[in-house]
Design goal:
22 strands, globular, L,D-transpeptidase catalytic domain-like, single chain
Length: 261
């Protein structure tokens, strides 16, 4: 069991750099505007939220199809199915204004176990099925840190594989099963994150703070194409800008992202 003592609303590191490099602002999935001043006020009870290190050392790729829970209002998250009091309440939008999407990892009668975009990586909680809309998605992403590649799959079939840059030795990219929580159009193709960036539910195992952010990990483009294939980032996964554009057109919120050694 893991005790959550800090509020949610963790934002992708791009937010911290928005004013400096113009990466704040853009468009989220479903036409929702993403703005640098978006907030996510969250009420968190000091209660245990379950976590089993889901995927922390699990090298099995994501299934061919996944269920994603979408909420358009405040969402109560419980430590266990059937609990009467929530452990936390998630706002209907992320700090970037993206619609709230949670990857479903298990089901039990009227309850769904979902992966949570919080520290420590692998934390899960339970939500009531009646409180969300369920969507099936076929896309998934697998990142191989040893090969330094990212592969996009559709229903288990490979769509593309690309070389990527990964975390440097001192700031390694975390491994495990995660998912996309934000899709961002930076509106700055020449910036350090390229035109498109994707915030993940993953957090750095080394950095708890980076440039004003909290060490959240993302997949994004780059203004330094020579870095692709290298271990040079603070934990994020850099892809060629043309690949980032293809991912933006294909990947949905909640898409599973499995990061393997």
């Amino acid at each position: 069991m893991r005790r959550i003592t800090a509020p949610l609303g963790a934002t992708f590191a791009v937010v911290a750099l928005a004013l400096a490099v113009g990466c704040g602002g853009g468009s989220a999935e479903d036409g929702d505007d993403v703005t640098s001043d978006a907030t996510s006020t969250t009420s968190v009870a000091r209660a245990d939220v379950t976590g089993d290190d889901a995927g922390a050392g699990d090298d099995a790729p994501a299934p061919a199809s996944s269920q994603v829970a979408r909420a358009d209002q405040e969402l109560a998250v419980f430590a266990a199915a059937g609990d009467g009091e929530p452990a936390m309440v998630l706002q209907p939008a992320t700090g970037f204004g993206s619609p709230r999407a949670l990857l479903v990892v298990a089901e039990a009668a009227d309850w769904l176990e979902v992966a949570l975009p919080v520290r420590p990586n692998g934390t899960t909680g339970w939500i009531r099925r009646a409180d969300v809309e369920l969507r099936a998605i076929d896309e998934s992403i697998v990142v191989d840190l040893t090969a330094r590649t990212l592969t996009l799959l559709d229903a288990g079939a490979e769509v593309l594989t690309t070389p990527v840059a990964i975390g440097a030795d001192g700031n390694p990219t975390p491994t495990g099963r995660f998912y996309v929580v934000d899709k961002l159009d930076t509106r700055d193709p020449t910036g350090p994150y390229g035109r498109f960036a994707f915030g993940l539910s993953a957090f750095s195992d080394v950095l708890t703070e980076f440039a004003g952010g909290d060490g959240q990990v993302g997949v994004h483009g780059t203004n330094d194409p020579s870095s692709i294939g290298q271990a040079v980032s603070h934990g994020c996964i850099r892809v060629p800008n043309e690949v980032a554009a293809q991912l933006s057109a294909t990947v949905n919120l909640g898409t599973p992202v499995t990061i393997l050694l």
